[in-house]
Design brief:
mainly alpha; 2 helices; 80% helix; rod-shaped
């Protein structure tokens, strides 16, 4: 009987911890989630600005290198701020 009691207590403890983790996740997303979204938007804007500056420089020939094309593809696939 003692073992069954211990198992029930542990199961109840696991349920409490899962509930606490779920509550923490909700609180974290409410408090910090928007900061991550804002950071993503700023990083996208920086890359776009850098690409714009580089494309206007006359001392740099237009690139047909795969790395530049890959970067443009990554930017195109990123969700816009309106999707957030």
């Amino acid at each position: 009987m003692e073992l069954e009691t211990l198992v029930r207590e542990r199961a109840a403890e696991i349920d409490r911890v899962r509930s606490d983790v779920g509550a923490f996740k909700i609180h974290y997303e409410q408090q910090v989630g928007w900061l991550h979204e804002e950071l993503d938007e700023l990083e996208r804007a920086i890359v776009e600005a850098e690409l714009g500056v580089l494309s206007k420089r006359e001392d740099i020939p237009p690139s047909s290198e795969p790395a530049a094309e890959a970067l443009l593809e990554v930017l195109a696939r990123q969700p816009e701020a309106a999707d957030a």
